[in-house]
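At this stage, I put together one protein's amino acid sequence and its backbone structure tokens, which the following lines show:
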Amino acid sequence: MTNAFTWLFLVVLAAASLTRLWLARRQIGYVRAHRGAVPQTFAAAIPLEAHQKAADYTVAKARLGMIDILVGAAITLGLTLGGFIQWSSDLWARWMRPDGLLHGSALILTVLFAQGLIGLPLGLYRTFVIEERFGFNRMTLRLFLLDLVKQVLVGLALGVPLLVVVLWLMQRAGSYWWLYGWLIVAGYSLVLHMIIPSFVMPLFNKFSPLEDATLAERVERLLRRCGFRSRGLYVMDGSKRSSHGNAFFTGFGASKRIVLFDTLVSRLAPDEIEAVLAHELGHYKLHHIVKGMALSWALALAMLAALGALIREPWFYDGLGARTHTDAVALVLFMIVLPEFLYFFQPLTALFSRRHEFQADGYATLHASAASLVQALVKLYKDNASTLTPDPLHSAFYDSHPPAAARIARLRAP
């Protein structure tokens, strides 16, 4: 049954999908137009061949992304107006009470499984064709499938209990279930931040203490200067999956730790590693982790409140192709269509993230060498084949990090 919300949903889905495709086309055209020359900022450090490789890599990913956009829109339509959610609800209702916790959990897991299964071929192509073509993939098919099985099992172990609790609250906690649900979700996310570094991440990668004594001492001096205590500095065997290099800060409270990819340690000089770590420490010392969590909690509260209002409206179910009006159906419909309605707010979150990156760079220059951070970033841009010439509008929509030229210019400014 169609209604006004059906047409609103179709308009939003079409607008978001067409905008995604338009931005991808802009990115491809802009990167290809600047493929022939290295930007002046990087001319002395990055050869033309590496710049062109980065351009070709970016274009290849953008083209695959366009296919992903079309597939994603088709999946969204198929799940909702195409009737898959209603079909799944009817299927499980043969063996379970339609308004029960088992039925609701089975319905949502079925939809998530279907989404993952349909997206699997693109994931395989991304890893074993694009990443392989540009020399980044070190993943075997066996490791890919093993990772997939682990991800599913970990997702079930961590996600199903939360799902059951939320569904139970929706059924039993009255009209303010969304507030109680938010408290559970916020608390659970905090617990996950504490346990994932120690218990989940080691299921996928090996984390070893930094063995280079000279580098370790240098890092310890940096940590003391920054007044930072952690459970350790670890090197992760990222090279078994990819030749990309990176560093990141993870954990919360007593579980916080700093992680370096082994590929990064092998490519950067000690002063460059120190500068990269100073940047990561900046995120913590400037409370970016806490601010990010607070923002995500605020958004979660707003979204759950919205769902709390929609769950009582028949037009919400009918407009998205669902005849069965249960809490689980409302939840899964909301999960599927929400990204389309929020898409045009994405530049705000990207801007929020880029501001934090600039601030962390500023912090790094106070505790390490700005020149060393510039050298490290240039090496990472080159080794990771990151484009130096992204389309400005595409970058504003999607990039969590500032464009390379802007970031380097700010670090070099007096």
In short: Residues 236 and 261 are 5 Å apart (CA to CA). The chain has a mean pLDDT of 91. Strands lie at 207-209, 233-236, 247-250, 257-261.
